[in-house]
Amino acid sequence: MGTLLDTTVFIQLERELRRLDTGRAMAEVGQRLVRELGADEEVGMAAITASELLHGVHRADAQHRARREAFVETVISAFPPIPFDLLAARVHARLWSDLAAGEMDVGAHDWLVAATAIANGWRVATSNREHYRRIESLVVVVPNLSA
After folding, report:
1. 23, 39, 117, 119: which one has the fewest Cβ atoms less than 10 Å from its Cβ?
2. Which CATH architecture group holds 1-147?
3. CB–CB of 143/34 below 8 Å?
């Protein structure tokens, strides 16, 4: 099984490691993920997560944009985005239908992350389990990524 890291994980790591240069920050990210998920765990992000992170770059003020962009581009390279393909679209449609029928809405982006994870047989790592609590078929972990 692999682990799909959601946006909250990257935001938490960026905030905690912002004082480090990008290379050192990524080394620390790798160490923390190995500690929490295991050395053999395949790790990635959903394509929508890359979009959310890049959105944060575009919204950053001039003072923080270059640092944030360096961090985001490095994590996108280190954790290649998994595309939203037809299998993920089928899973997404089922989740969306099931949750809408039960009047249980989760964010549209969270549906895409969950569908990508389920379609690939992966779990989701998040800093906010609440985002995914209504998706019963999804395995969710909340890694302790603090130092």
Report:
1. 39
2. 3-Layer(aba) Sandwich (3.40)
3. no
